Amino acid sequence: MADDQKPLGSGFGVRSTALAVLAGLDLKGKRAIVTGGQSGLGLETTKALARAGVDVLVGARKPGVATIAMQDIPGVDIDTLDLSDLASVRAFAARVLTAGRHIDMLINNAGIMACPETRVGPGWEAQFATNHLGHFALTNLLWPVLDGGARVVAVSSAGHHLSAIRWHDVPFAHGYDKWLAYGQSKTANALFAVHLDRIGRERGVRAFSLHPGKIFTPLQRYLSESEMVAQGWLDETGAPADPTFKTPEQGAATQVWAATSPRLDGLGGLYCEDCDVARRAEEADAPFVGVKAYATDPDEAGRLWRLSSELTGIGAVPKTTAF
Questions:
Q1: Please, what are the domains in the chain?
Q2: Which InterPro entries match (predicted)?
């Protein structure tokens, strides 16, 4: 089988905006769900899709806050969704299914990064639970309205370079590291897209993951200024210091491109960055560029899918006890 994990020459790049990648596309009448669509990259994604004529449903943990954030955006609906709470995920999905409208794009955008050790649900590590398990459950539950033709976009990150799936200790039961936990959750996002595409393509459901770039958004809420200075993101005065950072409009572009680009027709299971399919990290000449082999491995993806099904009780696959 040909290796499709290589740039297409999309015509877009690192400074393209979400609106730019949608220019000229006829999306009127399409329906999208954007998780976390009220803040950061999600908000810019919602704005761009709505402006292009897409009807957008935003899943937000605090719908009142979301309503204020999006009060001037037409064509947007808001519903309660807490990805760290399976009961909330089930209730949100049930309301979508009751509405009965086909979903053309599911953009799994919401997430948390480098938070203090937090346990949710039955003791799950919060980053793995929120970034991956919640979206895994949501996508499976929404299958009836995705079936027949949809794109599912998982917002991963170059942070996946920090950690493969830690099969020896997925829940960090033996020592927590906030960056390794974040890295594992972002690898999980990429592997989720690999396996979802594998089982969905015959039903017209294609999946992609992506790195949006470095952007200042509420995602950094758990980081202190001194940590961001140490990373080189801010200077000693607290001002932005890294010229490779994107604006939020640029940061949202790759997920919008992955959800809509005709260049991706017939493709799937790929990791994207800078509004194109990414190269493999092993072929890159810089750190944190491209996608690691472990994040596109179909066997790893299948194993993670089975574990996720076991943990959530959702997904029509055999259960496994392999961690």
A1: 18-312 (3.40.50.720)
A2: NAD(P)-bd_dom_sf, SDR_fam
